[in-house]
Each structure stands twice: as C-alpha cells, then as structure tokens.
Design goal:
Elements lengths: L1 H14 L12 E4 L4 H6 L6 H8 L4 E2 L6 E9 L12 E7 L2 E7 L1
Antiparallel strand pairs: 1-3, 2-3, 3-4, 4-5
Protein name: Outer membrane protein assembly factor BamE
Subunit structure: Part of the Bam complex.
Pfam family, one: BamE
C-alpha cells in the first residue's frame, strides 16, 4: 500500500510540471539594426565617416582586415512584435577610406 501511494505521488508530481505553460523568454537582440532606408542611402564612394554617421559603429572590425566592416544582427526568442533588421550580415569594404564594395548576406 505504501509503495503504491509513493509511486502514485511521484508520478503525479513529475507530470504536474507539464501542465504549466512554458516560461516567458525575453527577446534578446544584439547588433546593428539596419533599415531599408539606411540601405537605400548607402552608396559606393562614401567616406568612412559618412558610413559611420549613417549606420553607426560596426559590430566587428577585423584586426587582420581593417578595411572590412561587419554590421551583424541576431535575435533570440523573437516574437511577432520584435523588430527585425533588413540586413543581418552586412559587410562593407573600404579602399583608402572610401566605400568600395557592399555585401549584404
């Protein structure tokens, strides 16, 4: 009798966790939020200061490739209301301080 009550209590207590809804997870966004308007204004031939004024500081400036700027954007636990970036991986390549190439992955 004691064993069956103990087993019944253990089974009910373990299954009770699945009755609750999953916990709320806060959406976490990291990086540069780049909009379509900003992408439309971005043009080859702009100076580094103009690009910084338009998009802000890049997330990554590679030490070995100082002429490549990476604008990254990631989201975890996104909901329908979470803002999304139009460019999740934007790479800008400069030659002598002038924007030479734009790669939007």
């Amino acid at each position: 009798m004691k064993k069956s009550v103990l087993i019944l209590c253990a089974a009910l207590s373990l299954s009770a966790c699945s009755l609750f809804p999953p916990p709320y997870k806060v959406p976490v966004t990291q990086g540069n939020l780049v909009t379509k308007e900003q992408l439309a204004q971005l043009q080859v031939g702009m100076s580094e200061s103009q690009v910084t004024y338009l998009l802000g500081n890049p997330m990554l400036k590679d030490t070995f490739k100082p002429n490549e700027w990476h604008y990254l954007y990631t989201t975890r636990y996104a909901t329908a209301d979470t803002k999304q970036s139009d460019a999740s991986d934007l790479v800008l390549i400069f030659n002598d301080g002038v924007l030479a190439d734009i790669k939007n992955n």
